[in-house]
Amino acid sequence: MDNSPPDNASPDTPSPPIARKSTRTADVMAAIRAKIAGRALGPGDRLPSIRAFAATMGVSPATVVEAYDRLAAEGLIRARPGSGFYVAATALPPLALTQDQPQRDRAVDPFWVSRQSLDADPAALKPGCGWLPADWMPAEALRRACRALARADDTVLADYGVTRGSPALRRILMGRLAEEGIEAAPDQVLLTASGTQALDLICRFLLRPGDTVLVDDPCYFNFRALLRAHQVQVVGVPYTQTGPDVAAFAATVAAARPRLYVTNSALHNPTGATLSAQTAHRLLNIAAAHDLTIVEDDIFADFEPDPSVRLAALDGLARVIRVGSFSKALSASVRCGFIIARPDWINDLVDLQVATGFGGPGPVAAELIASVLAGGGYRKHMEELRRRLARARRETADRLGQLGIEPWLMPRGGFYLWCRLPEGCDSTDVARAALADNVVLAPGNVFSASQSASGFMRFNVAQCGDPRVMRALERAMGGQAAARSGQ
């Protein structure tokens, strides 16, 4: 700590506020960066001594020490015990980490929307992304949980967690499952580092390269991306407004002999459709006849106004594996997922998670989520969120309708609209053109295994409120129409 008075102050002069000290540290760091950027210091060069640079900058040696330590933590400089600090050999011109930028010329594949959305400029509009705006999330509840967590036992803040994850959060999950009619025992619940990691573990456990996996067509694009990474054959089945086309599902299962079927049952992504009870029973009968395991991703369950049928509830977790996470309703920053499955499978998945990640989510993330879920505010947050999304769905559908874009169906809940573009519009071309206006869209074929959704696009209604979204969309479609007329 730099508690020394300013050079021209008397001993009785009050110490400057902490904020001023932080500014002095930042000034020292900026001065070193400037020397490196101006080539006054190059890779391998020794920095001025702490005392000499403190005198140059008019600050205390402690301030220079803190600045050098921070620059070393960034990898810009290196400390050599007994010798001093040196510019790192790996420092990159202009010797500061450049901000990640999306590669806009990359192929529009299952990774495209994720890369464009995650790496977008903070000012970008993202109606194609898969999460809610930050100001729609329960930030105050998360802050309260963070403050409570700061007073937690040291082991929560510093140690690895138990292999199956936080007992408190697992108990909450078991209670939520019981409300759906699923009686899951403690040995059937495993917490993971994220919902994506939950699916990745299942793929590692059950699949081998060359196996066949069945998905809905269209389906969540990251299902396709993850399955590609596992080097399996992905086969799509057309999705209807009540679930997969049962006749096509039966024929494909008999012909392709898939090892897994991966789906959303509640508020399907991207269509927003809801699985009907009749379709669910027929799917389970087909799966039983062909020894097919079903992975049911239930990440949007809390967005339903009333619970719909669940494959895991009908099946009793015999051949259905339930996965999910809390990133859509609580926080995408505090990552934690879960797997609900047969006890013998969970036991093997625990070992696999230890082998690949030395356990699941850290105790900090799991306890933070448990604290928010246990509070009465979470249910109120979801009630308000459902009302807000219902309004946004109507308003977005109206605005899109003025452009000739029509929803395939109006979902019961959630934040997606799966929409058909006007005749002749290719959603991939529209999405590429919209990037010029700093707007990230989600074209239909990134969701389609058969590449049959070029006339569709998924819209996140919570991200469509800015008028610039519709203007960019209109320009992109207009440009495409002009190009067609000029042919």
Distance between the first and last residues' Cα: 70 Å
Report the portion of residues in β strands: 5-15%
Helix fraction bin: 40-55%
Largest sheet: 8 strands, mixed
Low-confidence stretches: 1-21, 92-99
Instruction: Count the DSSP helices.
Output: 17
Task: Give a description of the structure.
It contains 17 helices and 14 strands. The protein is α/β, with parallel strands linked by helices. Helix 5 (139-150) packs across helix 14. The longest helix is centred in the last third of the chain and has 25 residues, at 377-401. The chain is globular and about 80 Å long. The termini are far apart.
Briefly characterize the structure:
It is built from 17 helices and 14 strands.
Features:
487 residues; alpha/beta; eight-stranded mixed sheet; four-stranded antiparallel sheet; 17 helices; 13% strand; globular; disordered N terminus
Summarize the SSE layout with pairings.
Blueprint: H1 18-37, H2 50-57, H3 61-74, E1 77-80, E2 84-87, H4 112-118, H5 139-150, H6 154-158, H7 167-179, E3 189-192, H8 195-206, E4 212-217, H9 221-229, E5 233-240, E6 243-244, H10 246-256, E7 260-264, H11 277-289, E8 293-297, H12 311-315, E9 320-325, E10 337-340, H13 343-357, H14 363-374, H15 377-401, E11 406-407, E12 416-420, H16 427-434, E13 442-443, E14 456-460, H17 467-485
Parallel strand pairs: 4-5, 4-7, 7-8, 8-9
Antiparallel strand pairs: 1-2, 3-10, 5-6, 9-10, 11-12, 12-14, 13-14
